[in-house]
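Revision sheet: structure tokens.
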Amino acid sequence: MLKKKIMELLLSNEQENIRNKIIINSCDLEFYLDSIISLHYCHNDEDIIFDFWDRILANLSLKNKIDIFKKIKFPNECENFQKDICKFLNDFRILRNIAAHQLYLSDGTNKILNNQTLLNLFSNYPNSYDEKISKIRDMLKFLFKYKFKESKK
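Predicted:
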């Protein structure tokens, strides 16, 4: 029943609004990821951060950035955030690629319907989607603030 409901949503007139939302949220989450990675490697040095951003981060795929983010050390109490973020972003990346590269969202239906994270995102759209994106964004903000404070030491 859930898969049928999601399929109908992906075929509906809302398809372009959903696509836009996915791409906007993807950019937003990737910005936080880039910021955390930059602070980790550049220690809050503005000149180095901007060069790092332009020369390195701009040339990495989201998958590469997620792999780098996984390797950043955070305190033990942050490890679950980090794992949850990585799992979600790896799955969300599939959805982002469908939204960015497929003519219709429904062209990626099999990938969406066979991924539990993505099914959960659309289970009660738009509420389920918005809640999960907000939760991941909040976790990224928390880790960014941690890295920012750490870079000031």
